[in-house]
Amino acid sequence: MGVDQEPVTKKTWQELQAAKEAERNARIPEEWKLRPDQLPSEDVVDLRPIVKSCGILSPAELAITGEEYDATSLAAAIAAGKFTAVEVVTAFCKRAAVGQQLCNMLTEIMFADAIQRAKELDDIFASTGKVVGPLHGVPMTWKECFHFKGYDSTNGYMSRVFQPADRTSPLPALLQAAGAVVISKTNVPQTMLVAEAHNNVFGRTRNPVHARLTCGGSSGGEGASQAFRCSALGVGTDVGGSVRIPAACNGVYGYKPSFGVIPMAGYSYSGWPGSNTGVPAVSGPLGHSVRDLALFAAVVRAAEPWRFDPAVAPGVMEGEPAARRPVVGVMRASGIAPHPPVRRAIREAAAKLAAAGFEVREFAPPDLLAVRDISEQLFTLDGLSYPKGECARSGEPPVPSVLAIGFWDLPAKTQEEAWAWNARKGGVQKEMLDEWQRVGCDVVLAPVGPHTAPRPGEWTSDHYTVVWNMCDYPAIIVPFTHADPALDPADVEFKPMNAADKKNHDLYDPELFKGAPVALQIVGPRLGDKQLLKDAELLDSILNGTA
Amino acid sequence: MGVDQEPVTKKTWQELQAAKEAERNARIPEEWKLRPDQLPSEDVVDLRPIVKSCGILSPAELAITGEEYDATSLAAAIAAGKFTAVEVVTAFCKRAAVGQQLCNMLTEIMFADAIQRAKELDDIFASTGKVVGPLHGVPMTWKECFHFKGYDSTNGYMSRVFQPADRTSPLPALLQAAGAVVISKTNVPQTMLVAEAHNNVFGRTRNPVHARLTCGGSSGGEGASQAFRCSALGVGTDVGGSVRIPAACNGVYGYKPSFGVIPMAGYSYSGWPGSNTGVPAVSGPLGHSVRDLALFAAVVRAAEPWRFDPAVAPGVMEGEPAARRPVVGVMRASGIAPHPPVRRAIREAAAKLAAAGFEVREFAPPDLLAVRDISEQLFTLDGLSYPKGECARSGEPPVPSVLAIGFWDLPAKTQEEAWAWNARKGGVQKEMLDEWQRVGCDVVLAPVGPHTAPRPGEWTSDHYTVVWNMCDYPAIIVPFTHADPALDPADVEFKPMNAADKKNHDLYDPELFKGAPVALQIVGPRLGDKQLLKDAELLDSILNGTA
Q1: Considering only residues 464 to 523 of chain B, which have any Cβ-Cβ distance to chain A shorter than 8 Å?
Q2: CATH number for the domain including B259?
Q3: What is the DSSP letter of A322?
Q4: pLDDT, tens only, B301-317
Q5: Interface contact flag, A424 B272, Cβ < 8 Å
Q6: What separation, in Å, do the N-terminal and C-terminal C-alpha atoms of chain A show?
Q7: Residue B334: pLDDT above 60?
Q8: A294 in a domain, yes or no?
Q9: Which of A153, B296, B521, B544 could join A268 in a cystine, given CB atoms 3.0 to 4.6 angstroms apart?
Q10: Which pLDDT score, from 0 to 100, does residue B2 have?
Q11: What top-level branch of life does the organism fall under (chains A, B) (predicted)?
Q12: How many domains does chain B have?
């Protein structure tokens, strides 16, 4: 699909855009549509309360889709007969419909199929008394780049519209077999390389928690989807921060696994098939609790995905993780000083853990600006010939946030140049490993970025996240505190370390950022995913007061 | 070392060759040198008996270095006080000195250092009553591409002579810490890409079992070293068959691990640092029993190498493997029909296992000639600019076997071309996995090549081995039977499937090949190394009658 990069249609990209928009609107039932007077004015920051005020969901539907439940407890409630799958799926479809009209986070809407599937699941439950699997009736949303039979997989490229997939990707198929019900796909940036969710096919996604700030990306539609609770569990992909950045921007949980834990085979490429940059992309969930992230991983691994995806490693998620109090390394900054809310979050989290009796040690990372240089070069080995070719096929222009990423025009590399960058990547991996061993930590507590969600298009440096892709360490995003002008004044004594540091400093505006979710990144050693999920659940319970 | 590819000396390569040869000869004590009349005539095929007839080793030394011991039992005998480390190391140094004069398998000779280290080990044992580790006093040889402080790491390039390493590579350092004593490095082909061991620095290595046939490669010096019993345990590397081919040619055991099991960091590159071909190189042992291969793996993993090598995976060799009777898939041929001795070995082995009650099933591999095409392209992404540059640095010419590999002149690839080949590799991985699942086997019994050791320079197709590198499945070489003109007549009804098949058929000469070792390749699923080692030990005991 899209691989030969030949023109596919005589229609202009604007005609295709209009047709695609009409298709999407037609997939939302009329009775779930907001009246014009229900749409918020420009000055409304938090869009989430509208789901209640608009009156489209019943009180019962608001409860089912509300904060009382995560995917784990929702699955338990369905299995216990408290709710039917149809009740749950319908409630989430309605909530997603409202979310879509406010935030534009959905791409391929599948409400009708979802409710039909929920009926089938209810019938099976009624006739057998058994659930089909641990996710029986749990509504899910998926990043645009997974194939679902009968629906497009455009990845935000106009060149790929109206070319429905002929099969469902193995990962969502596996979750469907475990009972999950897919209600929609979610938005991405054109090229999938940007911490944003804006493309010419579907437009821009808004952050439901703070509409003036970005939803992040590249799984930005999914971050917004989870924050609005369009589904109980979502899935994204991450090669530089694409699960973690939107999780952080929207104040939800996210998990970037080590490579080889979760299958990727058969998803929709956003670059040349077989591309081998030296930094592997992975799939991972976004959701409402650490235990939901662990549930996702457990369901996937129980299906023995190494039997169908050659890239999946067997044996790396075996056994029970230790019930331990992990030694916590704290990474505070590298290259670019995080904004005051992020610095405070790290400081308060470390203090809270120390007060709870955890051993907390300072962790000095490699130079993350150098890491960013390496990743930019590795991500552009082909000079981005693939996305440029896809744009050329339909005639659509690159969106502004793509042109702003800073590496759109980097040239293609020879093999020798590519390998020199790869060797530098190896140096970063070694430096990180040596520091981890020196510190003797079990997990590292780190910023997700040098800021909370900034304004749309302004998350241009992924160095706090891409380093963990480069080193292939698993990382979990845990929401923790919100930006608060009283606690997080601008740093008047700031002295920039470099131009990037100054640029980042200048982005901060305490009043504008007020209420922005802040998040922590909790990192484990490579392939230590199962233990990390358990450690992160414990740390979250202490940090967020559920312990 | 050698990375900037500037000329390093004003001397001609012939002058350097002579100086290097003189250095190596000076490292063999005069009293261990063969008299000219003890050198075999051209018609002697099996060179091994000369170690006894030459009189350089005492009967006790012949016993210590003989077939009565493998590394496991030798370590036990030293630990029990039956032999001192000095006795054992001296005996092997003498045997290696004789082997070198007959077969030219050694490169950097370290006899003096080895005996000194053995004295230290004996002193420790005498004063503490304890061994320093599970390999206390066990003599080892290592492929040329591992660094040892104070010795060259030329990889057969004249451009790198007389540039001693300033540190020992982590893997041999780990084995030394476990008590192993390194007595020499062993020969490789120029470029390390050939199934041969011939270069301008050290010359060509001969096969001690069958001097008219090749020793194989690229760990060819190590294959010859183990066959002559120059040491109790050797280590090679394998990216296309470089451990397995020489193990098979010389009739010894060999183990190519899955990537990530055994550390490779800090060895001496034979290409651009950071090169990322999509087919990973691995290190693995050659030796005298399957249990020795498992001992090597256990010692390495006990040192927790994931703490110093970022590429090593933790958690993949945990737990005890099952004591089971594995279901055996049998791969008989693909693309090129193996010579009669190889066909017979597979047939007899499968029959013997079936007779012993094992379930044996047919296994249909991917098209291995297509696999070979893919691997050739992936191994030449840079147009071999590195080895060509190394040759240019010293002015040495490529040796004939390098020019004969068939891909010396393939052009460099763009990233897009490289990735298209990588995508084809992904197709092979999927096809192999699907067949493995279809058959439902635990291990696969396969040829190592389309022939036993052929004449020097004639092992030009690695398709039976490189496929397992491409798929990253672990594989163990088990010697089984010898070529026998009475049992293995030329196939008079042969009808070639293709040109490569005809060429291979024409190499066979029942009388010339008489006595050549034949070997089996026993393959396990990716990262199933620990179980494979156990399965292979059981299968070997049945096939070779030790059960």
Answers
A1: 471
A2: 3.90.1300.10
A3: P
A4: 999 999 999 999 999 99
A5: no
A6: 48
A7: yes
A8: yes
A9: A153
A10: 44
A11: Eukaryota
A12: 1
